[in-house]
Specification:
By secondary structure, the chain is α+β, with helices and mostly antiparallel strands. It folds into four domains: 132 residues, Immunoglobulin-like; 102 residues, Sandwich (Immunoglobulin-like); 77 residues, Immunoglobulin-like (Sandwich), CATH 2.60.40; 264 residues, Rossmann fold (3-Layer(aba) Sandwich), CATH 3.40.50. The chain contains 13 helices and 32 strands. The protein has a six-stranded mixed beta sheet.
């Protein structure tokens, strides 16, 4: 249900020449700027009244001056503070039943503008301007009352505020009923509703997490090819990204705030085709030896297949024969030219499969020439908070990180082979060179992230894993905040990770980034413009890793705002939770000397962490990569071939 905003604020400025003393007056020219530009200089802040009481008496008294609110429904009380600051008291908003939607303070230059609009993906709806997000508060942080502050308010235009729950575009797939049987090309309708001020929304389609073959017609008509996916129940998902739904200054984005928003709709359908691509085996590395691409046919028939260079059309392998019964046909290829000896040099190859002379499937695969690092140690870092914070929060978070990241977690890795250590592992159990670790936090005494990250991340001989134990984040950046200002982007991280000694195997084996909003690729990539945080770590899509032969890796990221503390109903900070995840993955279910087991899956470690600290679910933890990935590296070849025989999951 929506939370109505019952109070608005208007600012106006005199017309030029209107000085109150008569004389000539001219009408101002129309302001053609969109609201995103008009309000981009605004800053939004959820006020901590305890901190305000300690640090700013005048502001605290202003908050106390709001009269009591006698309504029972959600209301906003708004007051001007100083020359360009608005204080807002939000009363009676209950978000306890909200899932991914957050409390959103909306802003517009017209109070009569519709809040929502239907979005045309071809752009015709972009002409409409209207309401945008001024700032958001995660559902788990919503309190009654809340005090908000909007600073640097524009003086040259009107501004109206209201509040709504918002999590991004509302997307609906129609045209078929759930579990309808479909084949070949199926037509669906994509309906999108979003804030009236958004423009240029991005769109993508996947089937069970894998890229789909689709085209978009007029009126958001989606045409989907089904034969490029296995027969059976499949989830068709439409994903829409709004990368300008929130007003902010792109040159100075706010920390710990959601800047981009996405919405998804999924529709389960029953794919039933007489011929289909059963196993693409895309991104297979050459060290597999022979790759197999699988196609299924539903009756006896002649089949033919070719593998060719998509740039030249030159065939490198051909196959033909008769299939006497319904079967899955394996097309083998050893990554060579037509002579079967010369290594194939291109990075992509096209596979064409034809049945009954008329039914053809063509798919283009990539060769994985950039693999995962050989398992080694884990580099640790975290961001220092203000030690002078009079509320005590900053010093507490710093001490927790010193104790659990710099202390306990670093010791766990360094003592991995210790006879009297917790793990008591040997290289025969977890692999060689695993007892490497280092921890360099971002403090006032280092020159930003560039003095911390490039050296260790480029040292693939020492570090294959990365844990950022606590830091600020927006989804687009990591770092920044009110105390230490330096931040880095996904492109920065990708550059540091790729610049390692073994350039062909640069991908991290495991990453855990404990920052806000880094888990939704649509948010961090701005619709594909930039790499996602998993991409920057070299972690490929989980759906693909679970369905193809490749070196595996994994990571934990977060789709929502990450609480800094209060986990487990106790005074537990993020750093201790981050330590718990890594230790569970390293040690397994029974964490005492002689019982530790490094063959528990990464999914097990994530699930155990959420069970131990249920508040973590509010941050929308998202596992990327291979869920069956284990800490031990002695079974890498098995995992590459989707053999999970040595993996424990419970």
């Amino acid at each position: 249900s929506e939370s109505a905003a019952l109070t608005s604020f208007t600012m106006s400025v005199p017309f030029p020449g209107d000085e109150g003393g008569g004389g000539s007056q001219t009408n101002p020219p129309p302001d053609l700027r969109r609201n995103f530009e008009k309000f981009s200089a605004h800053t939004f802040l959820l006020l901590d009244t305890n901190a305000v009481a300690l640090n700013d008496t005048n502001l605290y008294n202003a908050l106390l001056s709001f009269p009591p609110d006698t309504n029972t429904a959600g209301t906003l009380q708004i007051a001007k503070y100083e020359s360009n600051v608005m204080l807002i008291k939000a009363n009676h908003f209950d978000y306890s039943a909200e899932g991914s939607r957050e409390f959103a303070l909306l802003i517009c230059d017209r109070v009569d503008a519709a809040i929502w609009k239907s979005v045309d993906l071809h752009g015709s709806s972009d002409a409409t301007d209207g309401w945008l997000v001024q700032g958001t508060v995660p559902a788990w942080k919503v309190r009654d009352p809340m005090f908000l502050m909007v600073s640097n308010v524009a003086q040259d235009c009107n501004a109206f505020f209201c509040a709504r729950p918002y999590g991004g575009p509302q997307v609906e797939l129609t045209g078929q009923s759930p579990y309808d049987v479909v084949s070949n090309s199926v037509t669906l309708q994509v309906s999108i509703t979003d804030l009236s001020g958004v423009t240029n929304e991005q769109f993508a389609v996947n089937v069970d997490g894998l890229p789909a073959r689709w085209t978009l017609g007029t009126g958001n008509t989606l045409n989907l090819e089904t034969k490029y996916h296995p027969n059976g129940i499949a989830n068709v998902s439409a994903v829409v990204l709004s990368d300008n739904a929130r007003v902010y200054d792109p040159a100075n984005p706010p920390a710990d705030s959601k800047l981009f928003f996405s919405g998804t709709s999924s529709l389960p359908l029953d794919f039933e085709n007489e011929m289909f691509l059963a196993f693409a085996s895309d991104m297979c590395p050459t060290n597999v030896g022979t790759n197999y691409i699988l196609f299924s046919v539903d009756r006896p028939q002649q089949i033919a297949a070719t593998i060719s260079n998509p740039s030249t059309g030159q065939p490198v392998a051909s196959f033909a024969g008769y299939v006497p019964y319904p079967a899955t046909v394996a097309i083998p290829w050893n990554f060579t030219e037509a002579d079967g000896v010369t290594p194939y040099a291109a990075d992509t190859y096209a596979v064409t499969f034809t049945a009954s002379a008329t039914n053809t499937i063509t798919t283009t695969n990539s060769i994985d020439r950039e693999g995962v690092r050989t398992a080694a140690g884990c580099f640790l870092t975290w961001q220092w908070e203000d030690p002078g914070d009079r509320t005590g929060v900053g010093p507490f978070l710093n001490q927790e990180a010193e104790t659990w990241i710099t202390g306990a977690l670093r010791t766990l890795y360094l003592d991995l082979y210790g006879f009297y250590s917790l793990t008591q592992y040997t290289p025969g159990v977890v692999g060689a060179n695993r007892n490497q670790s280092g921890c360099v936090p971002y403090t006032p005494w280092v020159n930003g992230w560039t003095s911390i990250m490039p050296g260790p991340l480029s040292n693939s001989a020492a570090f294959s894993d990365l844990t950022i134990g606590q830091a600020h984040g927006t989804g687009a950046t990591i770092g920044g905040g009110d105390y230490l200002y330096d931040k880095f982007t996904t492109s920065d991280l990708l550059g540091w990770v790729r610049l390692c000694g073994d350039r062909t195997n640069w991908r991290l084996r495991k990453a855990a980034l404990w920052t806000c909003y880094n888990g939704d690729p649509a948010l961090s990539t701005a619709g594909g413009t930039y790499p996602s945080w998993p991409d920057a770590c070299g972690i490929r899509d989980g759906a693909k890793q679970h369905t193809t032969y490749m070196r595996k890796n994994c990571g934990l990221f977060f789709g929502g705002g990450l609480p800094q503390g209060g986990y487990g109903g106790q005074n537990v900070a993020t750093a201790r939770v981050a330590c718990f995840l890594d230790q569970t993955w390293v040690c397994g279910k029974y964490q005492w000397p002689g019982a530790c087991d490094p063959t528990y899956s990464f999914d097990f470690a994530v699930q155990a962490t959420v069970q131990q600290y249920p508040e973590l679910a509010d941050a929308l933890p998202m596992r990327f990569g291979y869920g069956f990935m284990i800490y031990s590296s002695i079974y890498e070849d098995e995992l590459m071939m989707l053999n999970n025989a040595h993996v424990k999951s419970n």
